[in-house]
Amino acid sequence: MTMTTQQITAELAQITDRIAASFDESADKWTADKHLTLEDIEQRLLTLMERIEANTPTTADAVTYTHPDVFTIGVRDGWADPETDPTRIDWAPRQAAAAIPFEVIDGRPVNPCGPTGVRHGRNELGHWGEALAADALVSALDYEGRRWIVMVERDDGHGWALPGGHVDPGESALEAAIRELAEETGLTVPGASWQSGRPRYVPDPRASDEAWMVTVLCTAHLGTLVRFPDVTGADDAARAAWIRADSYDTLTARLTETYGGAVFAAHVGMLRTALGVA
């Protein structure tokens, strides 16, 4: 069975969460969990290690790819670097500004969490190196105490995600998250108390070894609401909705049952951590 790097990352996140959920820190021991044993963990990790080794491209079979839209629509609309050769870029300013440090070898940026399976080129991303984004996690409780969050269905076929996007020059991550929330869902929450997390690398399926995404999760909880404010998909969101999310498992079940959808691969680990598992 062939797995992408993003799928392997998601599988490792699931194993990690199951381990955390099964460990009773107060008793300093493993709790009884019929769904998880140490042998299960060992076997699954060994299997993943074999797949990682099998899926790591060698110099001979390394993939070079940049989506054609990057050179046309991306450059025209300003979301792609017009430079096609990364060795001609002055990397010092970009490295100094990076949220997560990265190396440049022979004039080419190196993904700090690679490999991705696309060795050279930008895959579906427009920039070379790191691009900083911000994502908005807006939650609320209904009158029965159930948690709901705002999500958008991406218009590029990559699934359901938190509203978010690139941080513009001179903009803070929180400002970007609030702006993207309004642009993609029409939702504004004046007076809300926001919290911003630390920058984190996300396993974006559009990334390559030379172009990747780092994001900042910004959260706001609106308390208990009798009526949830309307949200409507706009900009690059095909649609927007409040999705029940008592836990990550509840979220994925609702997306599947209601929309036949799945969580955007880049947001799986982030949402599992933020929402917890059942």
Describe the structure using short key phrases.
alpha+beta; Nucleoside Triphosphate Pyrophosphohydrolase; single chain; 26% strand; 7 helices; 278 residues; globular; two-stranded antiparallel sheet; 8-stranded mixed beta sheet
- Helix proportion: 25-40%
Largest sheet: 8 strands, mixed
Tally of DSSP helical segments: 7
Whole-angstrom Rg: 20 Å
Number of domains: 1
Mean model confidence by pLDDT? 86
Strand portion, in percent?
25-35%
CATH homologous superfamily, by name? Nucleoside Triphosphate Pyrophosphohydrolase
Q: What distance lies between the first and last C-alpha atoms, to the nearest angstrom? A: 28 Å
What is the string of helix and strand elements? HEEHEHHEEEEEEEHEEEEHH
CATH fold label: Nucleoside Triphosphate Pyrophosphohydrolase
CATH architecture: Alpha-Beta Complex
Top-tier CATH class? Alpha Beta
Number of DSSP-assigned strands:
14
Shape: globular
**Backbone structural class:** alpha+beta
pLDDT below 50 for ≥5 consecutive residues: which ranges? 22-34
Describe the overall structure.
It is a single chain. By secondary structure, the protein is an alpha+beta fold. It has one domain (57-278): Alpha-Beta Complex (Nucleoside Triphosphate Pyrophosphohydrolase). It is 31% helix and 26% strand. It has helices spanning 5-22, 38-55, 68-77, 91-97, 173-185, 248-259, 268-275, and strands spanning 23-24, 29-30, 64-66, 103-105, 108-110, 120-123, 129-141, 147-154, 160-161, 164-166, 194-196, 200-202, 211-224, 237-244. Strands 7, 8, 9, 10, 11, 12, 13 and 14 form an eight-stranded mixed β-sheet that branches. Strand 12 and strand 13 (211-224) form a beta hairpin. Helix 1 (5-22) runs antiparallel to helix 2 (38-55) and helix 1 runs parallel beside helix 7 (268-275). It is globular.
